[in-house]
Structure formats: C-alpha cells, structure tokens
Amino acid sequence: MPDPGVLARARSGTGDTVSAWAFEELSRRIVQGHLAPGAKITEEALVRDLGASRTPLREAIKQLEELGLIVRQRNRTLRVAPLQTEELVELVRLREHIEGLAASEAARRFATGEIDTGPLWTVIGTIADAEARLEGATRIDRIFDLGTTFHAALVELAGMARVARIHAGIQLALARYRFVNARDKRRLNHRSAEHREILEAVESGDPAAAEAAMRIHIREGLRAYATNPDDGVDRTA
Question: Closest by alpha carbon to 96, among 212, 205, 180?
C-alpha cells in the first residue's frame, strides 16, 4: 500500500501534484515487478488501491503509455508492457547515442572550465565501496542505483536540458530491465573501473575519447543484459 502521509500531502496540493505522485507510485510498482509484465490494469482497481481520483490517475497512465511502460490494446484494455529483447536493444542504443553525446559535450565543457566533476568522483568512490561490501549478497540494486546516479549527473554536466529530459525517460524505461538483472554479478567488478575510465576521458578534454568510453561501457552493459538467461525477458518475438 502507498504511504498515506505522502498521498495526503499530494492531495493537499494541485491535481498535478496527485498526478505526479500517482506516476511515481505506478512507475515504482512496474519497475519492481509488483505490477508484472502483461498484467491487466483497470482504473477501478487503481482508484481502489491507490486512493486517488480518476483524473490524476488517467494523466499518470497517459504518461506511462508515452514511455512505453503501459500498453493499450485494441479493445482498450490496459496492460503492463512485456519485457522484450527488441525494446531492450532499442532503449540501449538510444541511450548510447544520448550519453555518448552528453559525454562529448561534458568533455568540451570541462576543457573550457565550465563544469566541476568532483561530485562524479564521489559517486565512483561510493560505487567502489558498495562493490567491496557485496560479498554474499543476492542482489546488486545499490550498484545499479549508483550507476544511474552517475549517468544522470554526467548528462546534467553536458548542459543540454532537452537531452536530459529525453535521457530521464529512457532511464525509466530501462529501470525494470535493470531490476530483473539485479542478481547478475558478471560485470560487478568492472563497474567502478568503467565509470572511472569514462570520467578520466571527460577530464582529458577530448570529446571523441569521452564519447568512445561511454559507448563502450553501454555496449558492454547490453551484452550482459542480452545474455542473462534468468531475467524474464521475452526473446522469442
């Protein structure tokens, strides 16, 4: 059940506030599998379960449809979108282009003294510390979360607001693939090293080198995603 205090605060604001809260709550449930791929969604059930009215719920559902997390079938039935290889590949390729561009621009801006990369080094240090503490753990969600933080921060350093908005949507769509892959430790020992290589390339001031480092990192991630047999992704389509 959602936190009643959070919902009460949302209700005390505008309709947009309730819609944003409903979007966040539904996104979380979809990403974490509480609303499973293929599950049927009805407004009636959501009104009853979330305690929000239909208007903000419809706006939240519309946003999730636009992001591809919810699909509307021909008979108007709403379902959680399935996990599919084609979507995963498309999202990762989009991410590669977007983040490659962002890394290139960040390198240019670093060379001209426009940005401070110190906070990103802090994130990399935190990733390394988290890696060292994961012996015996069954999931590596913390590492995924920190990686997401690193990439979002780097995109912000590029200073391109539209790119940052597009990137945020891609990252949300990819979040549920990350969640189902959070037991896969094959690249665990490489994450902080790969992020370090990306940031060093940015600090070299060479846009081409920064873009290349980012693209290599993202392609390695796709290779791991695409070969994990236990992620629940439909590879038959």
Answer: 212
Given the candidates 1.20.120.530, 1.10.472.10, 3.20.20.70, 3.10.450.700, the CATH classification of the domain at 85-226 is 1.20.120.530
Strands (E), the chain: 40-41, 70-72, 78-80
Cα separation, 175 vs 70, whole angstroms:
14
CB 233 within 8 A of CB 85: yes
* Residue 170: CB atoms within 10 Å: 18
- The residue type found at 118 is G
Question: What is the CATH T-level fold of the domain 4-80, as seen in this structure?
Answer: Arc Repressor Mutant, subunit A (1.10.10)
- Rounded CA-CA distance 172/130 in Å is 22
**Any idea which residue has 């709403």 for tokens?**
78
- The answer to whether the pTM exceeds 0.85 is no
pLDDT at 138: 61
